[in-house]
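protien #1 (seq + structre)
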Amino acid sequence: MFAFRRLLSSHGSRLLSSLPSPVCVYPLVERQMKIAIIGQSVFGVDVYNLLRTQGHDIVGVFTIPDANGKADPLAVAAEADNVPVFKFPRWRKKVAPGQFEVLPAVFEKYNELGAELNVMPFCSQFIPMEVIDKPEHGSIVYHLNPAGSQRRFCHQLVADER
């Protein structure tokens, strides 16, 4: 099974109606992977639950900080399962006009988890390329807004045999 859409439909997820078209495709592996989820909202929760249902090891969830004392739904779901949750307000700092570098403390926390793949549903933060490229199998990055400025994310994924 290679199509993400077919995988989701077999589980009756409400994600199907909200996925952009064409749907991003990633050849699914037959073994469980160590996955870091970097994202937010109910869409992030659906992806989190689907990956756990598939038997993958969610090594950490990175989401936005609490807003007005209310935690993001993805953080709530992960905390209920005792999965480590990180709420960094930002991942990088500006070092010169147009130049940024990853925050060392943030990258160290991320790196300690040893993720083999990043899955980034509805990620609204600017994630450094050091994080996107770090896992052995790279990152799957997608966004729910196929008509907006984020539509380029739909095709940024790793589909090689690394």
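ok now protien #2
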Amino acid sequence: GQAMAATGGAGDTNNVMSSALANLVGSGGGGGSQSTTGVACVSEFIVFNPTLSIYENEEEKKILFHYPPELSETQVIKRVGLCQALIYCVKPFSPEKPIESLHMKKNTVYMYNPEPDIWFTLVLENPKAESQSSFVTTIVVNATTSSQSGKEEERYVENYWDDKCMLCVLQYIYRTFRLLCGSLLSLQQGSIPNLRAVLVSFLSPFLENCISWHNLDLFACLNGIQFFPMHKNMFLAFLHCVNLIESDNPNICSTSVLYRDQLVLTTRLDPEDVRILYRVIVSAITAENNFDGSVLHLLKFISVRKSGNSPFWTGPDDMSNANARINLVNVYVGPNAEQRVLAIYQLAGNYFFVFLLKPGVTKFKHFRRLVDTIAKHTDIVPKSTPMEQPETECKLIYFNYINSAIKTTLGRATGSSFLKPVVDAFSSSRTPISAFNAIHAYFDIDDTGDCEVIIKTSAERWIVGRRSVHRDLYLLIDNPKVNSLDAAREEMKRLVHTYWSNVFMG
């Protein structure tokens, strides 16, 4: 397709804002701006390393993975060559931030550099456009061209895909791969054919089963964690218990505690690793409620299963038999992707202890000692129920950047539904979610720190977003009494004063 615009690198802030606000029109998926027909999907996904070959007749050596597998080698080489040209063209103008996206008539290309010299390239097809309203018709007509034969060419929705969402998804794909398989460079140093095989076994089903491409939204960007609402004394009791368990078992590198699919606490783990590990663990322990292929694919890599004779989901199958099979699951965490052994222990009830253990100390006797230690110290933890939360009829999303905590009344935003559609409580239109996307994009390019954005939709709703002290709050107002800008601002102030008076300024 014809190249229309490239973003990333030395991009223009005004263009980014215009693109974000354009997403408020219509109900397209992926943050799209016009109504569409046809199927938009992953056209190509390529992983390559340009340093693996410097000769023109050996360009295929640069390719580590390509999807779909039906793509010819010539097609993949051409795409890699185009991406390399774009990377080198933009680099002199923006040495610190490489190119991220390229918008074309029929396709949108996203590029992500997760590790030195390794690139992910995602090519998405732009769906064909169909005008359903006067406003959308104006946009489509202005974008229409005629061929030499006088026939109208097919029109495409060139801003259908939300740049920020897609780049966050690429990061999510990489972080999940890194957690379960290790870093790309370490695998490459071991064996390039082995790296190619691991990428094929992980990425191909992941792209097909684990991402709902048409329904990516603000939740995909935030990738937040739902925390278990707990009284202070209860939390301190759990923290004391974890400290005692870790002191008695020096082979424990990190401990996390979950109540069902909500996080209670975690120790000594990088925040990004916490987010991805939490996502994988929650998907595993709630797998019985999931009927699509996303969790099944992840379970192939982490082999999580519950045995009736063992409290471990990963570990010995039978704690009464010293010769029982031990199901060891390796994960890779930290800045250097250090190998750890994942041990998931289910406490009585719905609590889970998630331990990351040092490799080499995972024999049956080590798990036996861990079980005895848990039994000795968990008596200090009283039985608990979730702390009562104030009820509200407001439709909102709250996110804390400090600990990645998310709270929403729009639907589930965690667990196996991380990249699944969020149903708008008012209608089938995704306009409110698209508005949240636009406000979030504006917050990221605004450098003032604290700011507020108010939008009125065509359905007479008010959408308010506020960022303050590393926290975001997005509010959807569907109250007929709120019929002016001042009224929407007062409604936000009332909500903040009621629930977050100690968090948000103003």
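DSSP finds 13 helices and 19 strands in the chain.
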